[in-house]
Design a protein that fits this description.
The protein has 178 residues and is mainly alpha-helical. Helices cover 62% and strands 0% of the residues. It is elongated, with a radius of gyration of 24 Å.
C-alpha cells in the first residue's frame, strides 16, 4: 500500500501524494512546525486569532454579565409593566441589545467585528451619558429607572465605567490585532 493512502497525524501532504493527486497522505515525521501545527504558519488564521486575553477576558466577562442582567431586567419590565414607563423599559431593552452585541463583537475576531465593537461601545458611552443627564435634569421622562438612568446607579455605575474601559482597551489593542 503506498504511503499516501495511509492517513497519519499531521497536516502536511506527502510529496508523492501531491503528484498523484491524493489528498489523504500526511507526513507524521516532519520537523516543520507548520506540519505539526497547521495554525502556526497560516497568516489568515493568525490574523483571525481572538483579541481577548488578560484584561480583555475580564472585560468580556463583565459585558456578558451586564448583557444577562439588562436582558432579564428589560424582559421582566416589558412583560410586567410596560404601560407604566414605555420609554424607560424600551431603553432598558436597547441597553440589553447593546451589551449583547458588544460582548459578541469583543469575542469574535476580525476587522469587521472590531469596528462593530467600536461602534457599539461608543454608542453605549453616549447612551449612558445622555440618559444619565436626562434622568437627572428631566426625571419626568423616566418615571422608572432604565439600565442607564443616573449613569447606571442601579448597577453600581458599571454602565458608566465599562464603556470608557472598553474604548480604552480597544484603542490599546489597535496595533496588536485587527
Amino acid at each position: 500500500m503506498p504511503a499516501c493512502e495511509t492517513p497519519v497525524i499531521s497536516f502536511r501532504p506527502l510529496p508523492e501524494c501531491e503528484t498523484k493527486g491524493h489528498r489523504i497522505g500526511f507526513d507524521m515525521n516532519s520537523t516543520d512546525p507548520a506540519a505539526q501545527n497547521p495554525t502556526a504558519s497560516s497568516s489568515s488564521t493568525r490574523d483571525a486569532a481572538p483579541r481577548i486575553s488578560g484584561v480583555g477576558r475580564v472585560l468580556v466577562a463583565v459585558y456578558g454579565i451586564l448583557a444577562l442582567a439588562a436582558t432579564g431586567r428589560s424582559v421582566t419590565q416589558i412583560i410586567g409593566k410596560f404601560d407604566q414607563a414605555p420609554l424607560a423599559y424600551t431603553l432598558s431593552a436597547l441597553a440589553a441589545v447593546v451589551y449583547i452585541l458588544a460582548t459578541v463583537a469583543l469575542i469574535v475576531p476580525g476587522a469587521t467585528w472590531r469596528k462593530i465593537a467600536w461602534i457599539t461601545i461608543g454608542f453605549e458611552m453616549v447612551g449612558v451619558i445622555v440618559i444619565g443627564l436626562l434622568s437627572i435634569f428631566d426625571s419626568a421622562l423616566f418615571p422608572h429607572d432604565t439600565v442607564w438612568s443616573y449613569f447606571g446607579r442601579g448597577y453600581g455605575f458599571v454602565p458608566l465605567v465599562l464603556p470608557a474601559l472598553g474604548l480604552f482597551w480597544l484603542a490599546k489593542q489597535k496595533g496588536k490585532r485587527a
